[in-house]
């Protein structure tokens, strides 16, 4: 099984190129396409050389990762602008570029900005975010404070950081306000902050809930679900460092808040666990692939057969995560496991139809 762990190493990443524009792989032609890609990039006519690894299919449809033995070959391949994969005598134009996190497909998230309503004008907040992160696409702001945002995973991460920074800034102002209020009360016991538009009591409540709120990070939901359900080190890390994770799944984005579970925890444990989860999720982001079987439009019997086939194969493929929904079934795992799993699902379905 091809592994992206080598690709992530600094030297390997310099020898790896991203190939886009490939035909979408199916359970029947994926291996053939991977072989054709390897042949194409080993051909000296295409400025190619010795290919160490080809990863296809990947989580991004139509994208492959090709790792060469020498860095110079990768550079030559990128320098040659015109690449064409010949498949059944039909040339397919390819785009070749350096390995970069930016190549991954965009994600969509729905934000609830209503938590900022008492402190800022939401429309102004959205305009500020648009200026800071112009690569993101924002939908119309709903009266409830909800807004849909779409962009690259890195852009969504920057959005998260901007919102956390904004929240921290507002919290600091609230703390200063309360501190001044306490000082004022000590100087003049009869005075009160009741006349203020923001009550001192509500601010104390806000601070008490937020202080010691731990570390936060944003993950791709598929990566998070695999990390939690299929990777034992996730639960082991939480137990070892005495921390708890509060998880909020919101479409393709999951937000995690990491907090110490008891008083004897080291103050740096939350940060260390956050770094561990980020490290493992980054590895999985490269290694995992998702295939989706659409259930919409199928008869109930066919839907049952698909789900039953997935259940039957689950024990045979312990490293494959199956997420069943009303409209579809997601199959998540390594590229080879997902390929074989879906192939066997289709085989079982055909047998049942007969």
TrEMBL record:
Top-level taxon in the UniProt lineage: Eukaryota
Pfam families listed in its UniProt record: RRM_PARP14_3
Protein name: RNA-binding protein 43 isoform X1
Transmembrane region(s): none
Gene source species: Ceratotherium simum simum (Southern white rhinoceros)
